Amino acid sequence: MSLAPIDYYDCDKLGLDAKRPLLQREYKAIDGIRRYTANQPGVSVLDVGCGDGFFLQELDKALGRKIDYHGVDYSEAKLRKAEKLPYKFSHCNLEVGIPYGDESFEVVYSGEVIEHIYNPDFMLEECRRVLKPGGVLIVSTPNLQAWYNRIFFAVGIQPLFYEVSTKSSLIGSGPLRKLKKQNVPVGHLRVFNRRGLLDLVKNEGFEVIGLEGAIYHSLPKPMQVVDKMFNAAPGMASNLIVTARRPLI
After folding, report:
1. Taking the mean position of all CA atoms in its chain, how far away is CA 46?
2. Is the pTM of this model over 0.85?
3. Which one of 87, 96, 124, 201 has the minimum C-beta count within 10 Å?
4. What's CA 57's distance to the chain center, in Å?
């Protein structure tokens, strides 16, 4: 029996429709895609969890060359907005599979999606299936063991990113309640640390070729200065960005 995800992102309370700049993790993903597709003709890119197509639009602007862009997402509300863009979009339940044939893409990108999935193993299996041999996967996700979460654990505060309630993200946050900008959960089911993410990617047959850290944009400005320093040690950074390759054989 397949599991139906909850569309947390079809919700005005989250303020997700507001215009925003690219986040650091997205800049780094774009740089990675630029590096791994340089001088390759006829490149096809799939955004797994594309939302309204914002990342694909920014990637298109950044690369400035002819690339075949595709996106899949579960949120019908987001896809209705994405359809205004000149790319190809499909509705997709990642618990069931990605609606593309084997070996369809040179690049698969998935930003802040894997933590929402009941079966992340199957999601990565599907990403590998639709990648061509030698193709690159880039996945970003929050880090359970970010430097501040290590402190929160020690003092008995629920760590950021890990949700224990479907009604409020303030549950267990203690004094952090005053700092949180919204209290609506976003549906995080699996939150990874460095080792957990790398082990999972390797277990699904990928060769890991890079790991980077990125800041968490919602932290107060003074904390972001410190947060940026921890990018040099991805295991303690706010976000993990793993780049992996499907082997040729």
Report:
1. 13
2. yes
3. 96
4. 16
